[in-house]
Design brief:
Length: about 170
């Protein structure tokens, strides 16, 4: 990280990942080209993340050859004018993590992963979960991403006095 003064700890970064509506997952295709796509990921423990997709396609082709992935998440992203110097800038909270992706093959883990995803994005509809799984499990792929290192966070944020909050300083 170039600006160490903006670095935040892994617990903070994990919270960014949990709050981000989408996390961009970057893959390497079989031909070596990059492929990044925003996905709806969810995790119960912060170390293992899941997403679901069709049982064939670019994501599965890529991870079959290159299982290493990069996850990036951004929240609270807002263009702004620097309060002290009038510069055009961006306030943001971001996180990045690296992991290894693999297709989930067992039905029990697939169902649990889909439950974790559904609880994150549709908690008010969990009464319909079992029927939805019965109808679609056979045509749904689930991918597990196990983080290989804790996530790293970065932010640019101003306090109420217009000072940039550096070195992990939180607003009082």
């Amino acid at each position: 990280m170039r600006k160490i003064s903006r670095e935040m700890d892994s617990a903070w970064a994990l919270e960014v990942m949990r709050k981000a509506p989408y996390i961009t997952v970057s893959f390497t295709r079989p031909d070596g080209t990059a492929y990044g796509v925003p996905l709806s990921l969810a995790s119960a423990d912060g170390r293992i993340w899941y997403f679901h997709c069709a049982p064939e396609g670019d994501k599965l082709d890529a991870l079959a050859v290159h299982p290493e992935v990069c996850l990036s998440a951004v929240t609270k992203c807002a263009p702004t004018v620097g309060p002290k110097d009038g510069s055009f800038t961006l306030q943001y909270r971001s996180a990045i993590a690296f992991g290894r992706a693999e297709l989930v093959t067992g039905d029990a883990e697939k169902i649990e992963a889909l439950r974790i995803i559904s609880q994150r994005f549709l908690p008010q509809h969990m009464d319909a979960f079992d029927d939805a799984v019965r109808r679609s499990l056979h045509r749904t792929a689930v991918v597990r991403i196990t983080l290989t290192d804790p996530p790293v966070g970065k932010r640019k944020q101003y306090d109420k006095q217009g000072e940039e909050m550096k070195y992990g300083r939180m607003e009082e």
